[in-house]
Amino acid sequence: MLQQTQVETVIPYYKKWIYHYPTIKSVALENIDNLLKIWEGLGYYSRCRNFHEAIKDIFYNHKGVIPKQIEDFKSLKGVGVYISGAVMSIAFNQTHIAVDGNHSRIIARVLGVKNQTSRNLKRINNYLTKLVTEGNPGEINQALMDMGSNICKSNKVICVNCPFHFSCKAFQSGHPLSYPKKIRPKTIPTKTIAAALVNHGDNIFISKRPLKGLLGGLWELPNIELVNGEKPEDLLKIKLADQFGLTIKVGHKLGMINHTFTHFKMNVLLYNCQAKDQPLSKNTEKWVSFSDLNQYAFSKANHKLFKLVELRND
């Protein structure tokens, strides 16, 4: 959960998860849909899917015991160099570094490294390896994480509170924030999406995204990207007919929401639609009442769309 997410954001999700799933067995035997519902709102849902696969691997192939050898641990789904180093050092006090953005930034400043070249990254890793070899690996890795989030931030430093400041070359330069050299962020594209609130009687239509890919395994209102100025009404009719076998009448626009992902932004136009009939549902398609939507896991963007509907109905 802590990958790419701040501690204060994670805490309530972690508590809820541990309450519902306190053991390896309880996670391994659970349906991914229920796990995604607990994870709902935390984002980066591949973490949840990978964690589920890793736990099943531990339960079925490692007798329910977390591997203590780093190569065995790294073979688990979703585990890379950073996670393996962090877990092996913190949980088992093994001498491994856990290199994330915080660690790299702190040591780059200590060494006076500006450019993120392969040679400089090797220097940073060697310095970190020396630190964890000479002390308690888990405590050192955790201390660097805390320093990076509280003392030696990317845009703010409190050098007088830093144990490295006597030997820190960035501090000695008088311009610590210029280390390391910041990479100019790329401009991210904006997509325009048309989404359909498809009604039939008291129910609305939802579908489940494929497990692989963005927001994998989450439910959503059917939608389609608009390109080259197409009419959203026409595209929604084609999409619903071709993919779900639904004949719909597209009504008025309910509103628009904005949402930002890591690599793109999107503007979503929501249309009120009526279905001619209500075909039998597949496992990845359902007709549900609006009040029952809370039983399914949706992305934040879809929850914004539901809020639009609630505001219209108030």
Structural features, described:
The protein is α+β, with helices and mostly antiparallel strands and 314 residues long. It has two domains: 7-178, Endonuclease III, domain 1 (Orthogonal Bundle), CATH 1.10.340.30; 190-313, Nucleoside Triphosphate Pyrophosphohydrolase (Alpha-Beta Complex), CATH 3.90.79.10. The protein has twelve helices and seven strands. Strands 1, 2, 3, 4, 5, 6 and 7 form a seven-stranded mixed β-sheet that branches. The longest helix has 17 residues, at 118-134. The chain is globular. It starts with 6 loop residues before the first helix and ends with a helix. The mean pLDDT is 94.
**Succession of helices and strands:** HHHHHHHHHHEEEEHEEEH
CATH class category name of the largest domain: Mainly Alpha
Distance between the termini: 36 Å
Major sheet details: 7 strands, mixed
Structural class: alpha+beta
